[in-house]
Write a structure and sequence with these properties.
three-stranded antiparallel sheet; Arc Repressor Mutant, subunit A; about 110 residues; 3 strands; 5 helices; mainly alpha
Length: about 110
């Protein structure tokens, strides 16, 4: 599809057709209308759920061992020791050789200890 609006429109039509075929009542246009309204409400609730789950700002992360060390106020070798010990496993995202740490999870890991 060219963009999300076209994709949403096609999905809405398919959903409406499936619902109207299922119901096969006398009022096909009313059934189509109800199906479109139902699809729109489902899509809106799904969009709001996905936006709640994924809202990590770049300021919520520190990048690299040096960034972690600066955030924690320790030296780079000490930060590396924390990473190697497994203390920060829940906070780590590693892409290739580059680490990124979710600051909230780093704080949580140190609060537990």
């Amino acid at each position: 599809m060219k963009n999300d609006k076209e994709h949403d429109f096609v999905m809405m039509l398919l959903f409406a057709i499936i619902i109207s075929m299922r119901d096969c009542g006398e009022n096909v246009t009313e059934t189509l209308h109800q199906a479109i309204v139902e699809y729109a409400s489902r899509k809106q609730s799904m969009d709001s759920m996905s936006s709640i789950e994924i809202q990590h700002d770049s300021s919520e992360y520190c990048y690299g061992i040096r960034g972690l060390a600066d955030y924690l106020g320790v030296s780079a070798p000490t930060a590396q020791k924390y990473v190697n010990s497994g203390l920060l496993d829940s906070a780590i995202r590693k892409v290739g050789r580059k680490y990124s740490f979710l600051k909230a999870k780093v704080d949580e890991a140190f609060k537990k200890q």
